[in-house]
Amino acid sequence: MQQAGDAAGRQGRNDRGNTIFTVSAAEAQEFRRRSRAIEVEWVEDMNKRGYDGRKLLDTARNLIEKHSKATKA
Predict the structure, then answer these.
(1) H-state helical runs in 1-73
(2) Which residues are CB-contacts of 57 (< 8 A; sequence separation ≥ 6)?
């Protein structure tokens, strides 16, 4: 659904002359490093609530990876 609207969104962006900022790989890595404490806290909170926090996080990451690859194909 998201991908279907991407072309129209890009066109609207172009029509308005909006600036698109792209995060570099180094910036993304630094963001991941700094957000690690939040991830650990979230996993611990999920565990306290009776869920397997690590499994939930890993599953989410795997789905993101899977669908990211599918959109690049």
Answers:
(1) 2-16, 25-34, 36-48, 53-72
(2) 39, 42, 43
9 burial (CB, 10 Å; 0-12 / 13-18 / 19+) is exposed
Per-residue pLDDT tens digits for 11-41: 888 888 888 888 999 999 999 899 999 999 9
Question: What whole-number distance in Å separates Cα of residue 46 and Cα of residue 57?
Answer: 10
Provide the token pair at 41: 């806290």
Contacts of 23 (CB under 8 A, 6+ apart): 31
In single-letter form, the type of residue at position 14 comes to N
The token pair at 65 is 């990876």
Count other Cβ atoms within 10 Å, centred on residue 55: 12
